[in-house]
Write a structure and sequence with these properties.
alpha/beta; Rossmann fold; six-stranded parallel sheet; two-stranded antiparallel ribbon; 10 helices; globular
């Protein structure tokens, strides 16, 4: 393996509580029909506006308004220390980096908020390339993010591994023809990951080293 592409939310960092809480606050502030935390969790991994339009029937303009308000609430509530890396992420990323693998991120998150997280967590230097939802024509589960990353990094599908926690991540990897590893501690279940074609399913991020190296 030469190139490893990581999802961020639910794979590297535990953002679920902050995301679902922010979604619920946004829905309430917009006077929309409430949705449960479980319903919201199932949408994590999609582009921000799409999470709202899939959850609740609404106009395109309302979807845009929801996305803007979400970003305002998220920025306000995202205090230092609220979001943490999952266990063994930092040391495993370092081991993969030291082993000579190229590490990158493909995320539906906006670039600004992602870079804040990476700097605060002191792992920014480990990643050679980052693709966000604004950098491609088609978002997950389309293969665009993976294809762009492979082109930039000079890797083939056989040399590339996609690592994610949601169905959209694994489907993106499958659609791009690369190897796939799913983690079970994020926003998707083992059954969902296996059903959508994950080649490897791990319960602990530390196990990724053995899968890849």
């Amino acid at each position: 393996m030469k190139l490893v592409i990581f999802d961020f939310d639910g794979t590297l960092a535990d953002t679920e509580a902050l995301i679902t809480q922010t979604m619920m606050k946004t829905i309430e502030a917009m006077h929309l029909e409430p949705r449960s935390r479980e319903e919201i969790r199932a949408m994590i991994g999609l582009p921000l506006k799409e999470t709202f339009t899939r959850l609740i029937p609404m106009t395109d303009a309302t979807g845009d308004a929801c996305a803007r308000l979400y970003q305002e609430i998220f920025a306000r509530d995202n205090q230092p220390g609220v979001v943490q890396l999952f266990p063994h992420v930092r040391e495993t990323l370092q081991k993969l980096y030291d082993a000579g693998l190229t590490l990158t991120i493909a995320t539906s998150r906006q670039r600004f908020s992602l870079m804040v997280f990476l700097r605060d967590m002191q792992i920014e230097h480990l990643f050679s390339h980052i693709v966000t939802v604004n950098d491609v024509e088609h978002a997950k589960p389309a293969p665009d993010m993976v294809v762009q990353t492979m082109e930039r990094m000079g890797a083939t599908p056989d040399e590339t591994m996609m690592v994610g926690d949601a169905v959209y991540d694994i489907q993106m990897g499958v659609n791009a023809g690369v190897h796939t590893t799913a983690v079970t501690y994020g926003n998707g279940s083992r059954e969902e990951m296996e059903a959508c074609g994950a080649q490897h399913v791990i319960d602990d991020f530390a196990d990724l080293y053995q899968v890849i190296v």
